[in-house]
Specification:
- It is a single chain.
- This protein has helices at residues 38-48, 81-90, 139-159, 173-178, 193-196, 198-211, 233-245, 273-278, 286-293, 306-314, 325-329, 333-339, 365-388, 399-428, and strands at residues 8-9, 15-16, 20-22, 54-56, 60-61, 97-103, 118-119, 135-136, 163-168, 217-222, 250-254, 297-300, 320-323.
- Helix content is 39%, strand content 11%.
- The protein has two domains: 3-347, Alpha-Beta Barrel (TIM Barrel); 355-429, no CATH class.
- The strands form three sheets. An eight-stranded parallel beta barrel has the order 3-4-6-9-10-11-12-13, surrounded by six helices.
- Strand 3 (20-22), helix 1 and strand 4 (54-56) form a beta-alpha-beta unit.
Length: 429
């Protein structure tokens, strides 16, 4: 039997039926009022029947004013609880766990969504002109956001989701508090690592209080930001230990921010050759993190061969293998891995490139890199859209065209949402 087929009992007592987890990917499928749709149900039913032990949703926003992108689902009250119940039911048909990832984007809220984002400090994210300069949070706003996380977690439990994951990675709000590059506060929320981690710890404790001791609470945390002066591996090891003390059940490790996309496999620093052979981007950090946290550990990023996945679990280096993009092109990839009927998962990243000749000899390298990253994201996002409509995947899609399609699609989502907002405002007058 494959080591991937083993069950895993979490500290809260919940049992995951195998060692494969679907990591969060943004879906962009919400309706104009930020509610789940039938497309969510179709997509997660398909994934649920594919054999993965735990599925983590794309980031669900805790505050309607601030989104990662238009098309995000928002859960801040029970007005659409029936839609959430339908999503939870469809996403657990295969007997798996379905955990809601709860998040606040902080300064990573696009200007088209909100031109006045919030962050620990007023450090501007200068990326293709897509983000406005944030305003530093007040003490009252910080306390309000902590309660919003707890409220969303309680509503997720009410709706039938079997767990929650607090998003503390990838440069979103909690990650912004953790990093000295984006947190320049001089009060209790900034300065020392203990102070910078205070927000994350308060959020986790509030969530735990809201859902009780027997409901899974997970955290997604950067192993590092991979930026000079940012959140480091040493920081991660210490914060992981603190979060374990605060009662989390599973720690997922990833890395990077919008400015350094290690989360997409873009390497900022030299990576050991042994890690290249073992595929997973963040696996070399697992031992130190696990020794500190002493909770089940899931590593996401780069796993492609079944042998490497099985060795990582069998050796005890990690407890779960996190997969994301492979489920977009092969929804039943987990069942195939557990059955040992495939030796590797689909790996399209290496072929999803815009050729050097696309722009001629004087190619703007930064723009090409951006187009490659966004185009790759769009390739998998388009597969999610197809699956959500009950269609088959299409791996013949080209990156150059997808880059522009992605921008067009996000613009349309923003315009649709703005139109709905204006109608609501007019109806109140």
């Amino acid at each position: 039997m494959s080591p991937l087929a083993q069950s895993l009992t979490l500290p809260c007592g919940a049992v995951i039926n195998n060692r494969l987890g679907k990591s969060a990917m943004t879906e962009g499928l919400a309706d104009a009022h930020d509610r789940p749709t039938e497309q969510h149900n179709t997509l997660y039913r398909t994934w649920s029947l594919g054999g993965t032990g735990v599925h983590i949703t794309g980031n669900v926003m805790i505050d309607r004013r601030y989104l990662e992108r238009a098309g995000n689902v928002v859960l801040e009250n029970d007005s659409a609880i029936d839609q959430f119940k339908a999503w939870a039911k469809a996403g657990t048909e295969g007997g798996n766990h379905l955990w809601m990832q709860i998040s606040h984007p902080g300064r990573q809220c696009p200007s088209l969504v909100n031109a006045e984002p919030l962050s620990p400090s007023d450090v501007h994210l200068k990326m293709l002109g897509s983000f406005s300069k944030p305003r530093a949070l007040t003490q009252l706003e910080i306390e309000d956001i902590i309660q919003r996380y707890a409220n969303t977690a309680a509503l997720a439990k009410e709706a039938g989701f079997t767990g929650v994951q607090v998003h503390c990675a990838h440069g979103y709000l909690i990650s912004q508090f953790l990093s000295p590059k984006t947190n320049r506060r001089q009060d209790q929320w900034g300065g020392s690592l203990e102070n910078r981690a205070r927000f994350a710890r308060r959020v986790v404790r509030a969530v735990r209080d809201a859902v009780g001791s027997e409901f899974p609470v997970a955290v997604k945390l950067n192993s590092a930001d991979f930026q000079k002066g940012g959140f480091s591996l040493d920081d991660c090891v210490q914060v992981a230990g603190w979060l374990a003390e605060d009662g989390i059940d599973l720690l997922e490790i990833s890395g990077g921010t919008y400015e350094q996309l290690s989360l997409m496999g873009v390497e900022a620093t030299e990576v050991r050759e042994s890690t290249r052979r073992r595929e997973a981007y963040f696996l070399e950090y697992a031992q130190a993190i696990k020794a500190s946290a002493k909770v089940p550990l899931m590593i996401t990023g780069g796993f492609r061969s079944r042998e490497v996945m099985e060795q990582a679990v069998a050796s005890g280096e990690i407890d779960m293998v996190g997969l994301a993009r492979p489920l977009c092109t092969m929804p039943d990839v987990s069942a195939k891995l557990i059955e040992q009927s495939i030796d590797s998962v689909d790996d399209f990243e290496t072929s999803l490139k815009i050729g050097d000749g696309f722009w001629g000899n004087n190619s703007p390298l930064a723009l090409i890199k951006s187009m490659n990253s966004v185009g790759q994201v769009s390739f998998y996002y388009q597969q999610i859209i197809r699956l959500s409509k009950g269609e088959k995947v299409d791996t013949s899609l080209k990156v150059a065209a997808l880059f522009f399609k992605h921008l067009y699609n996000d613009t349309c989502l923003n315009l649709r949402r703005k139109k709905a907002q204006n109608k609501r405002l007019l109806s109140k007058d």
